[in-house]
Design goal:
Number of helices of chain A: 12
Oligomer: homodimer
Shape of chain A: elongated
CATH superfamily of the largest domain in chain A: ATPase, nucleotide binding domain
Strand order of the largest sheet of chain A: 3-2-1-4-5
Number of domains of chain A: 2
Order of helices and strands of chain A: EEEHEHEHEEEHHHHHHEHHH
CATH topology of the largest domain in chain A: Nucleotidyltransferase, domain 5
Low-confidence stretches of chain A: 293-304
């Protein structure tokens, strides 16, 4: 009898990294957590976080790194943009039975559609889309809120500030939202500018719930900002669908509050994800592994 | 016979500060240059620059600081936003016969219309408007390119990058401009994002001439960016006119190239400035001075 094969999926972002270990028959053996693993933080740092999460998952299964030669690994990591990034990442890791590395969006899309064609659109602090068509990935947007990330929380917050300052200057209508935004950021335009000087995307994004709350009450400025953001997301949805994605998962903290603002057509394309990014990374590991007679599709009941 | 009065006008910005000295009859006596005098850099630094420029202007006239008790001073300084800023600025300076301090926009507007009602709109790296109506100033916009400064060079450059990335993602048309912008910033979206990470308003603003050049050749994306910027400036012009400014001076590095993109109505309001910000600061000094029998309006021939 051949020794067991193991499959490990890793989902690594800028703040943390998660690993999930499954047996060849799909049985969940363990999960683990590690530090940040965006490869822009450096490959040493990323691999240290990946191995931290891996060791924790192995420990939960009563296993240790001696199984590495039987471990098939799939990594979905933030910061992987080009094929070269993938090659460098794999070269910097230890020896496994096999190792695949793609962007975290690829893993999330694979997991959401269990490997079938589909697309995801992330609407959180930032925004980014990814479609998987016939095994090929297509990334769109997500270049950062200064010059991209339309429809994101950061974009919503920044637009709210812009209109709050225009309202102060009598260039745009003053509403409950524009007053509240100025009040929250110090009351005067000079205080608002001081706040902006130190603000990053996450700071702008933290204003999005205020805008959503005012929009829900019919505030005209808030409604125009939120419907504008929904229109931007819809541009991405139309594009991902035109690429060939029959369905789409809207993800991220703003997916639920923004969904009702989408057109009925866009909403009709939305589906819930079947699995998470870790399941996508596990699929990558299975796809990369040499064919195995014990391999079979993961039963949906085996998903978390 | 009373000892001579002298009038000094100072125009201070974030990079340099200029001073102009006139006799009571308007005769030009001297000019001088100093370092940055935006009061946000600190009042010590601002005053050190102001005095550097002042001493240089006095030296050109064969005078020295012993005339300070007969010197009437007007300061137009970047960074003065509130009356408190003006009071703090004056309190930190040496003893003059009298001392007025206002924002540099106030001095520029006073100089441009020789003290009559009017407005200025600055379109350079940033954008900002200022109207002077019956002696009262009204500032509008100019809160920085992250959340304001519509129609500015920085806004034009940032929009060009945004559309260059959208063109790469097949979300917007690809033109000569979008290709050139990506090529200039490293060729790949990843390189563009790297450039954006280190970019400030001046860096974005340096892309504006490329956009203008492509717009002049009919590039569709460039034309949409530039006509959008002109529309934003026109919103300011309409607002400043509605406040009561009969005419308007468009100033800054983008005023000449953007003027042809304004509507005939907006262009019909534009006039050339009669004097510069130093003349405005000199007017502030005269207005602040106790009435003087030798005082008379500055002859236009005395202007530079």
């Amino acid at each position: 009898m051949t020794p067991d094969r193991y499959y490990l999926g890793v989902d690594g972002g800028g703040t943390k990294c998660r690993a999930r270990l499954r047996a060849a028959d799909g049985t969940l053996l363990g999960e683990g957590l590690g530090g940040p693993a965006n490869i822009r933080l450096g490959l040493d740092r990323a691999w240290s976080s990946i191995l931290e999460a891996t060791h924790a998952a192995l420990a939960q299964a009563g296993l240790d790194p001696s199984i590495f030669p039987r471990l098939h690994v799939g990594l979905g990591l933030a910061g992987i943009v080009t094929p070269t990034d993938s090659i460098r990442t794999r070269a910097a890791g230890p020896a496994f039975a096999c190792l695949a590395a793609e962007t975290d969006a690829h893993a999330a899309c694979l997991g959401a559609f269990s490997g079938r064609d589909g697309a995801i659109l992330i609407a959180g602090t930032g925004s980014a889309g990814y479609a998987l068509i016939g095994g090929r990935g297509h990334a769109v947007g997500g270049w950062g809120f200064e010059v991209s990330d339309e429809g994101s929380g950061a974009s919503i917050g920044r637009e709210a500030i812009r209109l709050a300052l225009r309202a102060h200057d009598n260039l745009a209508p003053e509403t409950g939202l524009t007053r509240q935004i100025r009040d929250r950021l110090g009351g005067t335009p000079a205080a608002v500018v001081g706040w902006v000087n130190d603000a990053g995307p996450a700071d702008y994004g933290r204003l999005a719930p205020d805008v959503l709350a005012h929009a829900a009450k019919g505030d005209a400025v808030a409604c125009s900002i939120i419907s504008g953001a929904a229109k931007e997301l819809e541009t991405y949805i139309r594009h991902l669908h035109a690429l060939g994605a029959p369905n789409l998962c809207l993800m991220g903290g703003l997916s639920a509050p923004l969904t009702p603002w989408l057109s009925p057509w866009a909403r009709s394309l939305l589906v819930e994800p079947e699995g998470d990014a870790l399941e996508g990374a596990l699929l990558m590991a299975r796809q990369a592994a040499p064919r195995d007679i014990t391999q079979r599709p993961i039963a949906k009941s085996a998903l978390p």
